């Protein structure tokens, strides 16, 4: 009886590895079960698979359990034998995502075939890419439904890699084809349709695209010149055609005129593997310029010389050293330039022997693969199979010891179709002069850069199209940007945003027209500040007038710009000040003029006359204060303020200043809160000036605080300083006004009615006078409507330095006389008469004169005790008149007083130098004049000083 187990595995025949392992395999863990239980279709397919010589596997059953043959083992690698009988996706877990859609397609009954599909496999412990051509075929089970799939694989990795290498080589060859300096093209078929054309061919033909066009279509007007017939001949006979200096007429541009060119070319037939010509390779060079050069040379030579002789003469005169050698290194041809470099080389001697004799390399041999250094002959390198690149070396020409020349050399081997070297060619050019010129040029550029970096101005340069390619060091120092960060368009971002558009517009206009570029703009400084600069640029032109560069500069004009703006501001302030001054002077003049008119009517009673007198006095006092302020400003501006410093108690200064402004406080019903220290606070200062400072500050507070407002004056001391703070709850100040509050002619309100009055010079005087006392002053306000605060800080004296005190009783009391003889001299008739009337009302005898001559005559007659003289008199000024009066016998000690509008310190000094005893500034105060006359009447002797 037959063995049942052998019968059930009868399809396992042969001695293959898989068949052997299948017999011993433990099928209990497999989804297939034991082979004895396999259905007939599975046994049949498995039998076929096991005897197949190509890689095959079978995936069967719900789990797609895996069976495979010996040829598949190389693909499985380390997965075998564990993969035998295991599910397909378990064996190939890493590529499940790639194969599952294909497996599902086959299981649905649709065969799948792929060619050169790439997978990542793990072989010999490493991942690698492999390519396969494979098919998935469905396999039916006993019930006729698909129970598995059959896969036949062929690994194509070697073929794919070979194709990739072939394509890479093709691309390399095509790159060489495309970059070749000679024109090349390939046409196929009897119509000569272009398949390829390199850039040189397209440039020569004046076309952008030739592929797909016939030779006739692509090159207009070529058909009648015989070239199409030549192509037809080469295509028909299979014999190449070589053309030298062949003339051709065609249009290089679509709309251009026809022109004649000359070309060296070859029509080389291209044959298929069966030997039939199926295309033509076209290669050549446009030698138009050479032909024309040769033609020009030929015309300049003696008529009748052969073209070959002319060409030979040209080679003989060429500055390039050229040598061709055969495969043994024996030179075939030298030109004179080569002998200048290499010496008198005997034509019978090989390059190797010559090199050995000259000591070019140590072992004296030329062997393939023996690399020579760059200073050795390019020809010898070429004989070794090297493509000697164009490089620059320095040599000592043979026969010229001590002379060094710079040589540009290159060489290449000459090979046959089998790639064997059959010779070499080398060229060398003496470029010493060019190198020297380039070195000089570099030195010039270095000097240029050194000069531009040495000057304090920013220098920049651009190409003709405006591309910025150079900035000197001052640019980087000024802007603080990194080196080369503004090349191109980067410089635009350094302009102030408000200036960028205009600067770019002007620059584009200059580039388009060639006109000089000039603009003022704000450039960002390395500090972050935008500073005004003057930008200028001029074009640099060549001999033909074309712009080759733009050279530009940037000049910092920030201070000049601010000064210009300051002048404009000062001019505006001057106009405003003149308008204010006119307004302020007209205000008191109006009531004075009205009072004068009322007085002229003669209808006023004593009470009315008294009121008019008060009006005139008050308005005259206002005008006097305005003029005094202006004079103070003038003295401060010219540095003519002299302080009479003494130890002073600040409490008394405050008291006196408050008394001056008390009428204003009462008129506006304002409350002044004074906070003084209980002890004395001594400072070193000029009493009149410090009272003036504090009165100005309080006057401002009163003016700019509404009726019923509140003002606080506080004095605070420390060991070394005394701080006076005046705060109000008035109209306050804006940030802009705070910035200029201490400037001359600045006011908080500049309305047309000018209800606050004043010339806007008070705070300027305050600041200057405080600085002269060694102190500081600052102003603060939270804003409009929130009040203001002025703080003044002065150096404080030690407490033991008390103020100097004066006893009023020290003055000598002299009994008064009944009256004095007083002469008044003024060319202003009204002023002279009114002053005389006032002095007369005081009980004195008055003599009024309007001219210096009449005054001298009067003085001779009446011998006045006092003379009140104007300075600006006709024919003779008051100084000269004073000297004349003192020369009159009996008037040597007559008291002279100047009553004048000239009230500067230099005017007072001039008056005292002329013999005046006193100096009064117009308009003279009535109380002051009355007091002075009383003193003189009592016989007080006083020093020459201004009261």
Describe the overall structure.
With 947 residues, this protein is α+β, with helices and mostly antiparallel strands. It is 38% helix and 25% strand. It has 29 helices and 32 strands. Strands 2-1-5-4-3 form a 5-stranded antiparallel sheet, with helices on both faces. A 5-stranded antiparallel sheet has the order 7-6-10-9-8, sandwiched between helices.
Measured on Cα atoms, how large is the radius of gyration?
58 Å
Overall outline:
elongated
Number of helices: 29
Head-to-tail CA distance between termini: 164 Å
SS-based class = alpha+beta
Stretches where pLDDT is under 50 for at least 5 consecutive residues are 1-8, 360-375, 749-759, 801-817, 940-947
User: What's the arrangement of strands in the largest beta sheet?
Assistant: 2-1-5-4-3
Describe the structure concisely for a colleague.
By secondary structure, this protein is of the alpha+beta class. It has 29 helices and 32 strands.
Q: Which features would summarize this protein structure in a list?
A:
single chain, 947 residues, alpha+beta, five-stranded antiparallel beta sheet, 29 helices, 38% helix, disordered N terminus
Give the topology.
Elements: H1 4-8, H2 17-24, H3 40-50, E1 56-60, E2 65-68, H4 73-76, H5 88-91, H6 96-107, E3 112-123, E4 126-140, E5 146-155, H7 157-179, E6 183-188, E7 193-197, H8 199-205, H9 215-218, H10 227-237, E8 241-250, E9 259-271, E10 277-286, H11 288-300, H12 307-317, E11 320-326, E12 331-334, H13 336-342, H14 351-358, H15 378-383, E13 388-395, E14 405-415, E15 421-430, H16 432-454, E16 458-462, E17 468-471, H17 473-479, H18 497-513, E18 517-524, E19 530-541, E20 547-556, H19 558-601, H20 606-637, E21 646-649, H21 650-667, E22 671-675, E23 682-685, H22 687-703, E24 710-717, E25 721-728, H23 735-740, H24 762-772, E26 776-780, E27 788-795, E28 821-825, H25 829-841, E29 845-849, H26 852-862, E30 866-869, H27 878-887, E31 895-900, H28 905-913, E32 918-921, H29 926-937
Parallel strand pairs: 22-24, 28-29, 28-30, 30-31, 31-32
Antiparallel strand pairs: 1-2, 1-5, 3-4, 4-5, 6-7, 6-10, 8-9, 9-10, 11-12, 11-15, 13-14, 14-15, 16-17, 16-20, 18-19, 19-20, 21-23, 24-25, 25-27, 26-27
Helix pairs in contact: 19-20, 20-24, 21-22, 22-24
């Amino acid at each position: 009886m037959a063995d049942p187990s052998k019968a059930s595995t009868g399809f396992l025949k042969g001695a293959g590895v898989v068949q052997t392992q299948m017999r011993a395999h433990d099928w209990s863990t497999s989804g297939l079960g034991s082979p004895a239980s396999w259905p007939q279709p599975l046994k049949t397919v498995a039998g076929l698979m096991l005897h197949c010589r190509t890689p095959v596997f079978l995936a069967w059953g719900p789990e797609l359990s895996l069976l495979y043959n010996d040829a598949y083992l190389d693909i499985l690698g380390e997965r075998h034998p564990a993969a035998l009988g295991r599910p397909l996706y378990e064996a190939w877990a890493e590529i499940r995502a790639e194969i599952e859609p294909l497996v599902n397609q086959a299981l649905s009954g649709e065969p799948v075939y792929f060619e050169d599909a790439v997978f990542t496999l793990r072989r010999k412990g490493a991942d690698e890419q492999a390519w396969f051509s494979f098919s998935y075929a469905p396999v039916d089970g006993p019930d006729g439904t698909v129970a598995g799939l059959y896969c036949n694989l062929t690994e194509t990795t070697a073929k794919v890699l070979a194709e990739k290498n072939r394509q890479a080589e093709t691309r390399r060859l095509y790159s060489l084809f495309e970059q070749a300096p000679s024109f090349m093209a390939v046409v196929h078929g009897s119509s000569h349709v272009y398949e390829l054309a390199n850039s040189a061919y397209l440039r020569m033909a004046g076309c952008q695209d030739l592929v797909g066009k016939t030779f006739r279509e692509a090159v207009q007007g070529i058909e009648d010149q015989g070239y199409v017939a030549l192509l037809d001949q080469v295509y028909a006979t299979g014999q190449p055609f070589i053309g030298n200096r062949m003339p051709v007429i065609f249009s290089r541009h679509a709309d251009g005129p026809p022109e004649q060119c000359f070309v060296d070319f070859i029509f080389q037939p291209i044959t298929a593997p069966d030997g039939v010509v199926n295309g033509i390779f076209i290669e050549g060079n446009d030698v138009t310029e050479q032909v024309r050069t040769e033609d020009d040379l030929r015309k300049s030579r003696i008529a009748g010389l052969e073209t070959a002789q002319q060409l030979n003469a040209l080679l003989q005169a060429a500055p390039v050293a050229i040598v061709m050698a055969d495969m043994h290194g024996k030179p075939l041809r030298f030109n004179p330039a080569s002998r200048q470099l290499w010496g008198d080389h005997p034509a019978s001697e090989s390059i190797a022997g010559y090199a050995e004799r000259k000591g070019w390399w140590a072992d004296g041999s030329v062997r393939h693969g023996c690399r020579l250094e760059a200073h050795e002959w390019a020809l010898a390198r070429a004989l070794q199979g090297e493509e000697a690149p164009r490089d620059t070396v320095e040599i000592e020409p043979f026969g010229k010891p001590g002379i060094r020349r710079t040589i540009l050399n290159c060489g290449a081997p000459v090979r046959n179709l089998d790639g064997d070297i059959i010779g070499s060619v080398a060229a060398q050019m003496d470029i010493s002069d060019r190198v020297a010129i380039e070195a000089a040029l570099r030195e010039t550029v270095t000097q240029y850069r050194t000069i531009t970096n040495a000057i304090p101005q920013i220098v920049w340069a651009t190409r003709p199209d405006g591309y910025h390619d150079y900035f000197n060091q001052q640019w980087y120092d000024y802007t603080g940007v990194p080196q080369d960060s503004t090349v191109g368009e980067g410089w635009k971002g350094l302009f102030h945003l408000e200036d960028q558009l205009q600067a770019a517009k002007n620059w584009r206009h200059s580039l388009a027209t060639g006109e000089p570029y000039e603009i003022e703009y704000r450039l960002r400084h390395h500090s972050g500040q935008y500073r005004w600069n003057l930008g200028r640029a001029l074009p640099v032109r060549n001999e033909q007038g074309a712009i080759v560069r733009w050279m530009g500069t940037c000049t910092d004009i920030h201070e000049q710009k601010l000064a210009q703006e300051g002048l404009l501001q000062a001019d505006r302030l001057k106009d405003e000040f003149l308008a204010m001054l006119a307004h302020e002077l007209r205000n008191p003049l109006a009531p004075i003029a009205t009072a004068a008119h009322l007085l002229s009517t003669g209808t006023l009673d004593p009470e009315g006359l008294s009121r008019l007198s008060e009006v005139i006095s008050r308005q005259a006092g206002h005008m006097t204060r305005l003029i005094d302020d202006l004079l103070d400003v003038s003295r401060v501006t010219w540095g003519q303020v002299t302080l009479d410093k003494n130890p002073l108690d600040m409490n008394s200064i405050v008291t006196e200043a408050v008394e001056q402004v008390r009428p204003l406080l009462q008129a506006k019903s304002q409350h002044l809160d004074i906070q003084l220290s209980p002890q004395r606070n001594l400072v070193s200062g000029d009493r009149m000036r410090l009272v003036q400072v504090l009165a100005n500050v309080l006057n401002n507070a009163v003016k700019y605080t509404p009726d019923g407002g509140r003002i606080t004056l506080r004095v605070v001391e420390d060991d070394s300083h005394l701080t006076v703070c005046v705060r109000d709850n008035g109209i306050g100040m804006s940030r802009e006004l705070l910035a200029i509050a201490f400037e001359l002619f600045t006011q908080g309100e500049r309305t047309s009615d000018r209800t606050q009055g004043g010339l806007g010079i008070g705070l300027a005087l305050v600041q200057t006078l405080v600085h002269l006392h060694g102190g500081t002053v600052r102003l603060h306000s939270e804003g409009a409507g929130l009040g203001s605060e002025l703080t003044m800080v002065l150096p404080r004296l030690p407490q033991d330095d008390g103020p100097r005190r004066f006893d009023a009783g020290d003055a000598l009391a002299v009994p008064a006389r009944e009256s004095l003889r007083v002469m008044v001299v003024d060319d202003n008739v009204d002023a002279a008469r009114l002053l005389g009337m006032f002095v007369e009302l005081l009980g004195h005898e008055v003599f009024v004169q309007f001219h210096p001559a009449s005054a001298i005559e009067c003085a001779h007659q009446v011998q006045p005790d006092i003379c009140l003289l104007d300075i600006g008199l006709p024919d003779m000024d008051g100084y000269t008149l004073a000297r004349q009066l003192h020369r009159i016998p009996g008037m040597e000690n007559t008291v002279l007083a100047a009553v004048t509008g000239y009230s500067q310190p230099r005017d007072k000094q001039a008056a005292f130098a002329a013999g005046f005893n006193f100096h009064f500034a117009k308009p003279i105060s009535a109380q002051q004049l009355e007091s002075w006359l009383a003193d003189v009447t009592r016989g007080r002797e006083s020093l020459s000083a201004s009261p």
